[in-house]
Amino acid sequence: MHLAYPSRKASNPPAYLAPRSSRFPMLRRSRAKTIVLCACAIGVVFFILSRILGGGDGVPSGTPPVVIVTVMDTVGYSKEYQDSVKENRIQYARKHGYATFFPSIGDYDLHGSPNSWAKVPAARHALTKFPHTEYVWVLEQNALIMNPALKVEDHIMNPKRLESLMIKDQSIVPPDSVIKTFSSLKGGNIDFVLTQDKDGLSQASFILRRGEWSKFFLDTWFDPLYRSYNFQKADTHALEHIVQWHPTILSKLALVPQNIMNAYNSDAAGGYKDGDFVKSTRDNGGLSSHNDDPNLYYDNSSNPYHQHISMLRAIGSPYDLRTAGRPTKSIGIWISTRLADRVFLGESKTLSSVYYLELHTPTVNGTVPPILAKLFDRFVFYG
Question: Which residues form a coiled coil (predicted)?
């Protein structure tokens, strides 16, 4: 007999059918989590090792720690003078593994602003051209590196050294500016180092630390508003303005004594003394005026020592041998500096005895003794 509908199944499963176990999916999920965690741990280990072994900065090997930037005025100065200034930087840079950068004023569109503004885009250019270099040292062409034994990292930018040099609680524009340098800054937090003279900030020689702050600072300084404002001293007064009105800039700035990196050619405070790092002619005209003809001071002799002595004579005393009663010690020290460079470069060691004799012999009635005149007659003026 056939029924019209199939028999209804029981609603409860038979006792012999055990419920499906979830053991295997749980094992698979646990194994996947373990693999992910192990991969993350391995990645973290590799990241830490790469930071430790790779120096942490990703700085390519062979990167110069410092780049010296000197903007050249190719119109107002003779080629011989420019070449001597470049040689001064290049020999010093070669000794310490630094780089040099010599843009000209004409490389930058200043939109009619004074040529002194060119140093600002030049520094910005250097930050881009040398992206991994730690320090950018802007040094005007009217300054000379006088002590090649000193390194920027040790002599100035070492944090502990910098803290000992920093002039704190000092008016930005002497004598009575109410805005002063901070008294609690640490050397490791400084990104901008420069000097101050009796008139205010002096940017003939300044150092910037690589980073976003330096780019921001240079972009702020070079703002068209400041360039078109017709400050009396152009970029100098613009710098003093932004330093006093922008704590973000003042908080990264350190003033150091002039003789550390920007000694002037004078006997006043901040004047150059034997052994100082840099000598600048900003205060006394020297060859810093566009109205000066460098060829009036400069001798075109092919002798490199003649060229450098002539250039220093153009800068003035204490290298002017015609100054009555002045000992020749100063020029002797300078010659020893040049010799140190040449010995380092393996070029010559033959003049060391000449340096020693000249160093210890004074002038007599404003003239050099005959024996020294004979030794130096090829490269020293005695007018």
Answer: none
> Which residues of the chain fall short of a pLDDT of 50?
55-56, 283-368, 372-383
219 neighbors 125 (Cβ within 8 angstroms): no
330-363: burial string, b at 16+ Cβ within 10 Å, e else:
bbbbbbebbbbbbeeeeeeeebeeebeebbebeb
pLDDT at 198: 87
Both tokens of 162, joined, read 């910098």
Local structure of 193: helix, strand or coil = strand
Residue labelled with tokens 């140093």: 119
Q: How far apart are CA 150 and CA 9, in angstroms?
A: 100
Length of the chain: 383
The predicted pLDDT at position 81 comes to: 94
- Domain of residue 334: give its range: 299-376
Quick one: pLDDT at residue 19?
Answer: 57
- Judge contact between 110 and 118, C-beta under 8 A: yes
**Residue 365 neighbours by CB under 8 Å, 6+ apart:** 324, 325
CA atoms within 13 A on the CB side of 224: 3
| Closest-CA residue to 205 (of 150, 131, 138) | 138
HSE of 370, CA atoms in CB hemisphere, 13 A: 0
Question: Residue 34 falls within a domain, yes or no?
Answer: no
- Residue 131 to residue 95: CA distance in whole angstroms: 22
**Which tokens go with 49?**
């090792």
Distance CA 200, CA 299 (A): 35
Tokens of 297: 């001071």
Separation CA 98–CA 92 (nearest Å): 8
For residue 318, what pLDDT is reported? Answer: 32
Domain of 193: which CATH number? 3.90.550.10
**Six-digit token string for 377:** 């007659």
> Tokens at residue 194, please?
């420069």
* pTM greater than the 0.70 cutoff: no
Same domain, 248 and 306: no
pLDDT at residue number 314: 41
pLDDT at 20: 58
Residues 312, 371: one domain? yes
